[in-house]
Amino acid sequence: MSDKSEPTPSPNTPTPEGEGGVCPICHGAGYVRLNVPPSDPRFGRAVPCLCKRREIAERRLARLRRASNLEHLRQMTFDSFRVDGPEDPEISFILRDALQTAREFAEHPKGWL
């Protein structure tokens, strides 16, 4: 039995950009109903179409960015971090070590909380 509880594309499903910019899945409504039995709690509920999910995710990310109040730090990345501080080589060594430690933690965040 095929599970059709998610509006996922198959090889025969058209992409969400149909002719004239209208989604061939939801026909521009942005939402679809799941093909589930009446006993399923999701029966009859509208869920975002594939064409709408990216837009919803982008709006959510924008809200989170505004709420975080960290937009002014957006340009500060590991790549933009400068380790060549004052003429003191010890400070440059400490900065390089801190950068490496931060990169390693970002890749494998273990031990936090």
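That was protein one. Protein two is written in the same sequence-then-structure order:
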Amino acid sequence: DGARRSQVLDAIGDSGVQMHAFAFGADADHAFLSEAANRGDGGFWSVTDAGALEDLFSHLGARLGATTEVAIDVPPLARGPHRLELHASVGGSTVEAGSDFEARNEGFVWLAP
């Protein structure tokens, strides 16, 4: 009913949580979902098929993703293969990433005075 819908919209606005909404198909309540997203300071999308839904989630993933930059000072590495591994805890879950690289130590020139 209208009173309940109004309560839900007010709760979304008062929560301080960003909310995104999408309507899948013609039978979805576009007006309510659009207003919910508006009150939640988020975005609203109307999705017509599975392909559009996949595109939407790709877009949102890029938009909502977070990037953290970490600078680490390390001593010069010996020439040859090395592996960099990063381990972190994000939201209680362990996240790991690794990369192999080759240290060549080229390009250093010392000019005596």
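The longest helix spans residues 50-64. Keep this in mind for the problem set.
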